[in-house]
Write a structure and sequence with these properties.
This protein is an alpha/beta fold. It has two domains: 149 residues, Aspartate/ornithine carbamoyltransferase (Rossmann fold); 156 residues, Aspartate/ornithine carbamoyltransferase (Rossmann fold, 3-Layer(aba) Sandwich). The chain contains eleven helices and nine strands. Helix 1 crosses helix 11 and helix 6 packs across helix 7. The chain is globular and about 55 Å long. It starts with 21 loop residues before the first helix and ends with a helix. It binds N-carbamoyl-L-aspartate.
Length: 309
């Protein structure tokens, strides 16, 4: 599965959702389901470095858990901006060149869009983009799509409301790109104007003939979708505090919203949440976000196996 006819790997680096096609997604999801309960030594002797220039809980720990469950080892720095030589002025490129000689795969989170692609250009080992500023977060999108398929039994034809901060929220951007590979998918982007989805994503959807609409209120669409994918307003990325105030709490999911949601629909969120998703929703069986987070380990096991085995 990992090697093509000409002997090249299917994936050298994981930088963008755009690298994935249906065939690869199907095989990855099948592998993730198979590997979920595996605890063995198939990646023994392999080392994964996590280089995180931005905070993370789920992404870093689920990558580490995935590697450890397959018998590999992990090393890394969780506050690379202050605890690595970045603070002394070392460039990302120099850091990556060095870490390439210490590890067999690098998982990178960075605050600048395009950082993972820059890293991949100088790395001698696979680089996995664990979030590049407001750019992309492809492995989150993989686990999100895997969750939709598991929870609803299909992706074809699903109606998804992507909500919250669609301007700076990289998870929704990457997920929209993956969803566009499935027939008859319909997307609604629900956000105040100031954080509505970027033209670059809409242009891709247009190219692929995907039907979408834009909305500013969840009320208008909540009863008509199979998935509500809520996201946090990315406070740390606003340069204008007025814009943040306009975006803040504009769309909130609580018990009132849940009453209007279809009984078979689900609520997802990449987490962490702040006030855009009320804790009163947690006990509702349609709240899929903790199951979603758990799926991250299996998906990352499948990805590490694909890149390293
Ligand atoms: C997200 C991220 O870092 O982009 N979290 C995650 O990886 N699960 C979402 C966020 O920070 O709001």
């Amino acid at each position: 599965m990992t090697v093509t006819a000409v002997g090249r790997r299917v994936l050298e680096h994981v930088i963008s959702s755009e690298q994935f096609g249906r065939e690869l997604l199907d095989s990855l999801f099948a592998r993730a389901a198979d590997l979920q309960d595996v605890r063995d030594e198939r990646l023994k002797g392999r080392i994964m470095a996590t280089l995180f220039y931005e905070p993370s809980t789920r992404t870093r720990l689920s990558f580490e858990s995935a590697m450890l469950r397959l018998g590999g080892s992990v090393l890394g720095t969780e506050a690379a901006r202050t605890f690595s030589s970045a603070i002394k002025g070392e460039t990302l490129e120099d850091t990556i060149r060095m870490v390439s000689t210490y590890a067999d795969v690098i998982v990178l989170r960075h605050d600048e869009m395009g950082a993972a692609a820059r890293a991949a250009r100088v790395a001698s080992v696979p680089v996995i983009n664990a979030g590049d500023g407001p750019g992309e977060h492809p492995t989150q999108a993989l686990l999100d799509l895997f969750t939709i398929e598991r929870e609803l039994g299909r992706v074809d034809g699903v109606r998804v409301a992507l909500c919250g901060d669609l301007r700076f929220g990289r998870t929704a951007r990457s997920l929209a790109l993956l969803l566009s590979l499935y027939p008859d998918v319909r997307l609604v982007f629900v956000a105040p104007d100031v954080v509505q989805v970027g033209g670059d994503i809409l242009a891709r959807l247009d190219e692929r003939g995907i039907r979408y609409t834009l909305a500013s209120q969840l009320d208008d669409v909540v009863s008509q979708v199979d998935v509500v994918y809520q996201t946090r307003v990315q406070k740390e990325r606003f340069t204008d505090p007025h814009e943040f105030e306009q975006a803040r709490s504009a769309i909130r999911i609580d018990a009132t919203v849940m009453r209007r949601l279809d009984p078979r629909a689900i609520v997802m969120h990449p987490l962490p949440r702040v006030d855009e998703l009320a804790t009163e929703v947690d006990s509702d069986p349609r709240a899929a976000y903790f199951r979603q987070a758990a799926n991250g380990v299996a998906i990352r096991m499948a990805l590490l196996e694909l890149l390293l085995a």
